[in-house]
Amino acid sequence: MTEPNAADAEQSRPGIPPRPQQQEMPLAIVMGQPVLQMPQDLYIPPDALEVILEAFEGPLDLLLYLIRRQNLDILDIPVAEITRQYVDYIEVMRELRFELAAEYLVMAAILAEIKSRMLLPRPPSEEGLEEDPRAELVRRLQEYERYKKAAEDLDLLQRLDRDTSVAGAHVPDRATLKVPPPVELREMLLALRDVLKRAELYSHHAVRREALSVRQRMGEVLARLGDGQFHLFQTLFSAEEGRLGVVVTFLSILELAKEQLIEVVQEAPLAPIYLKSLAVAGEAANEPELPEPTSDGGETVAE
What we know:
Elements: H1 6-11, E1 28-30, E2 33-35, H2 59-69, H3 79-95, H4 102-119, H5 135-155, H6 185-199, E3 212-213, H7 214-224, E4 231-232, H8 242-258, E5 262-266, E6 273-277, E7 300-302
Antiparallel strand pairs: 1-2, 3-7, 4-6, 5-6
């Protein structure tokens, strides 16, 4: 007496309609004709290169491939046949010495469990109460198919650096003229206050002071700025001259700024103040003609 196979046992259960027999999958299609068996006279060398065209991302992907390849209904999976094909694939991978992930073996065990549950007879009282053993597997396959379809739809979208590229053009470097902001008189007075505070730290014991001329100090300031570079406002003052020297130097700076002989710039409010000579390069050798100071004290401020 021969034992019925899994497919016959599955279809012989009461309440299950007979399923049409599946056709054997061809090994290849040559000139439009399916090849069901390997040719007897085909010689394959032992060290021949073997190419696996199918690549699966996991056991669910393999199961979905086996189902869709045969146009089977995912809601009515023939577990016996799918299990056989699944195990055959694992055996082929082992023969080719491919290392399979543990998930493939776990899925093989799940298929074997579902197959055994469908083969075991059920008591008549539980015939309509027990859930289909394939229900959980079908749910996972449907969920995986939805995600796979969504991933394929996303892959069809235009992708930067794959389907499209950003057009660019080199823009030549251009020298931009940065106009410094104007300096208010209040900012210069605040800087003068700091210089006066520093001058008070020095004590003098001179008996006689030299005469300080605004006109002469204007020439000295222009000489200090003659290199054409910006100089810090505080560096033009000498604390050793005391408050009188600070005042004369400050008046000289105001006169030079008024006559547009120097440029006074400040990057931002309360930022350091810088001064620069506006004398042209051709006049660097000749001392510029200085205007008469307009201060009420005349040319000499103090003696």
